[in-house]
Amino acid sequence: MTKEQVHALIFEAEIPKIHAPPPPTKEQKLAEDLSTTATPEEPKEKTTEEQVPERYHNFLDVFTKPMAGQLPLHCEWDLKVRFIPNAPSSISCTPYLLSYVEQVF
To answer: What is the pTM of this model?
Structure first.
């Protein structure tokens, strides 16, 4: 093989085509858009007013961390729980699902 023939084989030969990857799907495009536009935000801690429903805002002092973390003082009308001797420590029962009406009501 002559020098010219080798040169022709190297430089004039058809370059094999490389297969391109398939175009991205709609889901992939959406995921890419969301990942580039969404900025991670620090989750801020909700205030007591935001956590407690509005109808209980008159009692917000009860829901504050110091008050919520302690039990009320003992009083003369505290109830005493009297246990039955030799009573079983648990009762075997099967829970059942509520109907839609029971769940809504």
So the answer is: 0.31
